[in-house]
Design a protein that fits this description.
The protein is an alpha+beta fold. The protein has seven helices and 14 strands.
């Protein structure tokens, strides 16, 4: 194997027919059939070796879509790939036209720990599909071993005051970690779906809903506080993911992180995951323990610091593609007139083109977003069964 492809696909609420996932939201058998047809068609077009799925409520529904994709792949190959009796069957073009079914692929599903199965109160999980299999059983990260307290530092002048903390015990959705054999090595894949920007509002005891949810009595300050809660949770989840990434990198494992980050590449939550960008020259910077204006980092320390940051940094497949192709815009989400990329594939330096010791390099980056319509567009309600995300695929070539 010299090439492989890796993709991220938020399928938008995949569940079987006549099963209420959110309040009053279900698919009729006809709607489910339409959705399965559309998803299978997208998977066939993607033809990716490794796919991270988000918004999976039930594994059976995903298995159903994958089986339909494999059936279509076999039918397509039978119609377009000449058999060995044809003198031209070895033409390279036919290798490009062939689509591998997922009959022998491995599937790992991570259900949401908060999903009780109660109709109308369901919670989605994530999954990874791999034609390359798994090197070991995948791991689910969601319920933390103990409460994670994130303390805040007191402001200057209030050093002896308690500045408070943010506590998290469980991620809103699971992170699925899988080690996938790629060529002669094993790559650690993380698939995530971080907390959305939808505000978190607290329902008072005995009430049926939070006051901020009543839009006829609009509370702009309360709504903003809900957004603050969502943002804090998303960034805390990003840090939990970052900790797991650094642990893999410390063991020398190549890492690829994909999923629905619910934020753009340069948002704080995304930059928590990818890590810092090294400063150009740390010899210009005042030392952390400076005793005079002349206490700067040495050249050797500059090299040491740069290497430490670079070794733990992840890189955006989209940005690498934009640099290579000079294309200036990719989007995976469209709503309210805002077009942005909130689905990403991040890669460790093992895949960076500037790294002489790279394991592989991205040759191309695809995004399937023709189905996306702005939420204010008249056609938007008719696209409710399709995904509201674009699908992204990184095409990788292994180094010889």
């Amino acid at each position: 194997m010299t090439e492989f492809t890796i993709a991220s696909f938020n399928v938008k609420n995949l569940i079987g027919a006549d099963r209420e996932y959110y309040r009053f939201q279900t698919y009729t058998p006809e709607e489910y059939a339409w959705k399965k047809d559309w998803l299978a068609d997208q998977l066939l077009t993607m033809d990716a070796d490794i796919i991270g799925f988000q918004e999976i409520f039930e594994e059976d529904a995903l298995q159903d879509v994958i089986a339909e994709t494999s059936r279509r792949a076999r039918d397509l190959n039978a119609a377009t790939i000449p058999d060995p009796s044809k003198r031209y069957h070895r033409k390279a073009i036919f290798r490009k036209l062939a689509v591998d079914p997922y009959d022998d692929a491995a599937l790992a599903f991570a259900p949401n720990a908060a999903d009780t199965g109660e109709p109308g109160q369901r919670r989605p999980g994530v999954a990874i599909l791999s034609r390359l299999g798994f090197a070991e059983p995948p791991e689910i990260i969601q319920d933390l071993p103990g409460p994670l307290d994130i303390p805040f530092a007191p402001l200057r002048g209030f050093e002896h005051d308690d500045a408070g903390f943010f506590r998290i015990r469980r991620l809103s959705r699971p992170i699925l970690k899988a080690r996938v054999p790629v060529g002669d090595t094993v790559v650690t894949i993380f698939n995530c779906h971080l907390k959305s920007k939808l505000g978190e509002h607290i329902t008072p005891p005995g009430a049926d809903f939070a006051p901020e949810q009543d839009l006829t009595d609009y509370d702009p300050v309360g709504r903003a506080l809900g957004s603050l809660r969502a943002g804090l949770r998303r960034m805390a989840e990003a840090w939990v993911l970052r900790r797991a990434i650094v642990d893999e990198l410390a063991q020398g494992h190549p890492v690829m992180v994909l999923g629905d980050f619910n934020d753009s590449e340069h948002a704080v939550s995304s930059e928590i995951i990818t890590g810092e960008t090294p400063f150009k020259n740390y010899q210009w910077m005042l030392r952390h323990d400076a005793r005079s204006p002349r206490d700067r980092y040495s050249e050797a320390e500059h090299i040491q610091i740069t290497e430490a940051i670079t070794a733990h940094r992840l890189h955006s497949a989209e940005s690498l593609f934009a640099r290579k192709s000079r294309r200036d815009m990719v989007f995976t989400s469209a709503f309210g007139g805002v077009y942005e990329s909130i689905d990403q594939i991040f890669m460790s330096r093992h895949f960076h083109p500037d790294n002489a010791n790279r394991l592989a390099e991205m040759e191309y980056f695809s995004v399937l977003n023709d189905h996306l319509t702005d939420g204010s567009h008249p056609e938007a309600p008719y696209n409710k069964l399709a995904s509201d995300h674009g699908q992204i695929i990184a095409h990788m070539r292994l180094n010889a």
